[in-house]
Amino acid sequence: MTQVQALVFDVFGTVVDWRGSIAADLGAWGAQRGIACDWAALADDWRARYQPQMQRVRSGAVPWTVLDALHREALEELLPKYGLQHLDEADRCHLNRVWHRLNPWADVREGLRRLKSRYVIGTLSNGNVALLVNMAKHADLPWDVVFSAETFHAYKPLPQTYLGAAHMLDLRPGELMLCAAHNDDLAAARAQGLRTAFMPRPTEYGPSQTKNLGPEQDWDVVASDFVDLAQRLGV
User: Fold this and answer.
1) For residues 85 and 134, what is the distance between their CA atoms, to the nearest angstrom?
2) CATH class assigned to 6-17+102-232
3) N or C: less crowded end of the chain, CB within 10 Å?
4) 150-190, pLDDT tens digit by residue?
C-alpha cells in the first residue's frame, strides 16, 4: 500500500446518495409548485436506464454522448409515466440538473479531508465534467482533480478510463487506487492493475437493496465508510 500515490473515487452511490438526494430535492421543488409525484420511484426508474444507455455508447451503436444528454433522454421517456409531460423546457432542465445537486453521504467530507492530507484525490466517474464540477461546488467536495468518462470518451468499465487516469497522473496503475461501493467497478479496475478499496453503501438503492452489500473479492482495503478508509490508510 505504500506505493499508492493517488485515490480516485466512483461518485454515484459511493460519494453521493443519488436516490435520497433526488427524492428530497425534487420533492421540495414539487411541493413549491404543487406537483405531486413519487420522486423516489422516478429516481429508481431514471437510474435503471443508466447502464443500458451507456452500453449503447460503449458498443458504438450511438456516437459519444455525455451523461447529461443521456439523463435528459431518459427523463423525456419517463415524464409521461409520472404525469409530468406538461412541464416546460425550463422545468425539464431543472429536473435534469438535479444530478448536479446531489448530496454526499455523512462520512464523505471528513474522510476526503483526511485522505487529501496524504494522497491526491479525485473522481473517476461516468458523470460528465460539468456535472462533477457543479456537484463538487454544491456538496463541498475537495477534489484535487476531476476525471470523467468524458475525459477519455469511454464509459466505465472500459479499460481506458482506469488506465487513462493513471496516465494523466503520471502513475503506474499499481500506484492508483479506485475506491468504490460497487464490486463490478473494482473488478474492472483490478483487471487493469489498479489497487482497490471497497466501502458498502447498503441503502444506495433504498431499503430493499440486494447487491453490493459486502465485498465479493479480496479487495486491497475493505472499509465501513470514508472515515474508516482514512483510518485504514493511516491518515
Assistant:
1) 27
2) alpha beta
3) N
4) 999 999 999 999 999 999 999 999 999 999 999 999 999 99
* Residue 147 grid cell: 476525471
- One-letter-per-residue 3-state SS of 93-104: HHHHHHHHCCCE
**Smallest Cα–Cα separation from 173: which of 189, 151, 158, 155?**
189
Cell, residue 45 = 426508474
Confirm or reject CATH 1.10.3470.10 for domain 18-100, answering yes or no: no
What span, in angstroms and rounded, lies between the C-alpha atoms of 49 and 77?
10
Q: Are 160 and 193 in contact (CB under 8 A)?
A: no
